[in-house]
Amino acid sequence: MHNASYTSFLSPEERKCYDRRLPRCAIRKYSYSPFKYMYDSKNNQALLNTTGLDHKTFQELVDLYAPYYLRYMWDKGTKKVRRKKLDKHGRPYRRKRRDMDAIGSLGLVLTWYRTRGSCTRTLSFIFGLTGSQLYDWLLFGRRVLLCILQKHPIAKVSLPTKEEVDTYTAAVRRKYPRMPYVWGAADGLKLHIGQAVSFIRQEPFYNSWADGCFVSAIFVFGVDGRIRICTINCPGSWHDSHNSDYKAYERIEHVFHNHGGMIVVDSAFKIKQSNAMIKSSQEDPSVPELLLINRDATSIRQLSEWGMRMIQGQFPRLKDHIRYEEKGERRVILNLMVLLYNYQCSRVGQNQILNTFMHSKKNYYGSSQLPTQEANLNTLIRDYSN
Q1: Closest Cα to residue 306, out of 344, 248, 352?
Q2: 106 and 61 in contact (C-beta within 8 Å)?
Q3: Phi then psi for 24, rounded to 5 degrees?
Q4: Residue 115, SS3 per DSSP
């Protein structure tokens, strides 16, 4: 009511002046944008601070990203990704050339995760895009990148193999001989979301203990820093132990029964009748041997705290309130965040967990190249956007 009465006294010129969108005449085009200038400088320090990747790793990702970027487009009418129409020779029909290339589109998605606040007041200047263009490119770019990374061997979330569990447990055993079978640690994370339009829809996300609306997640980190098991996008009113019931416990038990590996958890997890988890207690036991085991478990569980810090440090955008919606965009954002985390901690050298437990395994991950066979983009992201 107050806003309506205020704007009713403004002239059309004044309303346009107070519009929060930036006009095209005030922003340089992408070809002359600060990001393009920074990228062409070939400075690894600048690109790492902007996107989280150095030039070599960024180019590897561009090589995978560009084919999908060139063959697909964002349909503004249906708000979905669709394949470009082809002529009789199998080539896309000639259209107006895109102002932004694959490098800029990928850089926009990565930079969006590493910034906070209004996109139209920061990213518009950096990439030379107006508000409506910016959000369309983000919606399109996130889906293209999700399509690539969800099948990537070092980015996807997958259970460790027998060989990997043996490598992980050996790395832990060298530092903590009393914990010979531990391969990782687990912890929970809560992320703020905006309020829903009605009380009924908001109720599952409201956490009275934290006094806010959240979505929660459970992450199990291996001692190489990667996320090997996760449960994301759960209602914020759920406890961590309840979130883990959604296949996480089943996968932890699978690793234990097939490969003999255990994980360390805190007091939020249920370990009754489970030999796959070791709980680190806040109170030291009176028995000397159990006291030493508990302290070792507490020290190992620190790797999950490091993992949470790396997630929140690499993706400051998650510290903002995630917009409440029911069309699947939040799930796309969170899934892509997990995949990007795995890819970055595997390909970029700064990984505190890996450097602490497996510092001699610098070339542990090997090649990041994928098979060149193309799959349908919409099929690959279907499970994440519905």
Answers
A1: 352
A2: yes
A3: -60, -35
A4: coil
Burial class (CB in 10 A: 0-12, 13-18, 19+), 241: middle
Q: Which of residues 106, 127, 149 is at a domain's end?
A: 149
* Total Cβ atoms within 10 A of residue 55: 17
d(CA 339, CA 347) in angstroms, rounded, equals 12
d(CA 202, CA 59): 42
Q: State how far the alpha carbon of 220 is from the alpha carbons of 86, 169, 230, 265, 305, in Å.
A: 44, 15, 6, 9, 11
Residue 293 has pLDDT above 60, yes or no: yes
In a domain, 249, yes or no: yes
> What does the alpha-carbon distance between residue 307 and residue 305 come to, in Å, rounded to a whole number?
5
In a 10 Å sphere around its CB, with 0-12 CB exposed, 13-18 middle and 19+ buried, how is residue 32 labelled? exposed
Q: What is the mean pLDDT of residues 172-192?
A: 90
Chain-centroid distance of CA 384 in Å reads 13
- What's the number of domains the chain is made of? 2
| Nearest residue to 182 via CA among 193, 196, 167 | 167
Q: Which residue has the higher pLDDT, 242 or 209?
A: 209
pLDDT single digits (tens) 92-119: 665 667 888 999 999 999 999 999 988 8
Distance CA 257, CA 249 (A): 12
Question: 126, 149, 172: which is the final residue of a domain?
Answer: 149
Residue 339 has pLDDT above 80, yes or no: yes
For 293, how many CA atoms within 13 A lie in the half-sphere containing its CB? 14
Quickly tell me which residue has 């832990």 as its tokens. 172
Lowest mean pLDDT, pick from 58-67, 121-130, 223-232: 121-130
Its pTM surpasses 0.70: yes
Torsion angle of alpha carbons 207, 210, 216, 217, nearest 10°? -140
Residue ranges in the chain assigned as alpha helix (H): 2-7, 12-17, 34-40, 44-51, 55-71, 102-113, 123-127, 131-149, 162-175, 199-202, 240-244, 248-259, 288-314, 329-347, 352-357, 377-380, 382-385
On whether the CB atoms of residues 181 and 257 are closer than 8 A, the answer is: no
Q: Which stretch of 4-8, 257-261, 375-379 has the lowest confidence by average pLDDT?
A: 375-379
Q: What is the pLDDT of residue 384?
A: 38
* Span 141-166, pLDDT tens digits: 999 999 999 989 999 999 999 999 99
Q: Residue 256: give the domain boundaries.
A: 162-335
Q: What is the CA radius of gyration of the chain?
A: 23
